[in-house]
Structure to design on (214 residues):
């Protein structure tokens, strides 16, 4: 598990890539952080840290791979919702917001990691990250909202600002363990708390977009 390895020790190991990502994710969740040390990664995973270079090129490459692993569930879920013809716009949006809450509960570092990678990348790489993860969500929100406005279910709202509303609601709560600890005496993000927050957030956001009767 030390850093001084020869080629044989860094050869591909079955499951090692996924284990590195899973361990990095666990470290970031437990520490409420968006960075890791390769020595801790090696210790916790039981793998040589040189495998980071083998699989990802460097630590930044591993963080990009982790972002890709975690963001793909949101992108795929919203694409699947858009393709459904048997759900109303309201039902689709409720399900999507709930999925966002569940994803940020599992990966509370997600938005901070995304912003860090955009900030630390050159212009071309930052644009690539935005095009891959942010633009699809913006397009999906615009389509979902317009479908609801057309049926009279939603009032017209700015899809861009709606993105910040949903993301902010999901990110802020699950990345604020210090607030929970010092203000509310709760240091654990339990499934019960997640379920309560999901119901609260879905109802709260939907109340703001549903067309006002009368």
């Amino acid at each position: 598990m030390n850093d001084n390895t020869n080629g044989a020790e860094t050869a591909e190991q079955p499951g090692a890539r996924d284990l590195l990502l899973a361990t990095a994710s666990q470290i970031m969740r437990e520490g409420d952080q968006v960075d890791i040390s390769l020595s801790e990664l090696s210790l916790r995973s039981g793998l040589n840290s040189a495998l980071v270079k083998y699989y990802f090129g460097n630590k930044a490459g591993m963080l990009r791979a982790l972002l890709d692993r975690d963001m793909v569930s949101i992108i795929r879920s919203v694409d699947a919702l858009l393709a459904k013809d048997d759900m109303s716009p309201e039902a689709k949006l409720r399900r999507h917001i709930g999925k966002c809450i569940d994803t940020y509960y599992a990966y509370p570092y997600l938005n901070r990691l995304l912003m860090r990678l955009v900030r630390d990348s050159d212009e071309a790489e930052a644009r690539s990250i935005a095009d891959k993860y942010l633009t699809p969500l913006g397009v999906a929100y615009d389509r979902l909202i317009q479908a609801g406005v057309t049926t009279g279910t939603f009032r017209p709202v700015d899809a861009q600002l709606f993105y910040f509303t949903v993301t902010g609601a999901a990110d802020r709560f699950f990345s604020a363990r210090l607030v929970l600890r010092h203000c509310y005496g709760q240091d654990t993000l339990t499934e019960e708390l997640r379920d309560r927050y999901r119901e609260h957030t879905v109802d709260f956001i939907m109340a703001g977009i549903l067309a006002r009767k009368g």
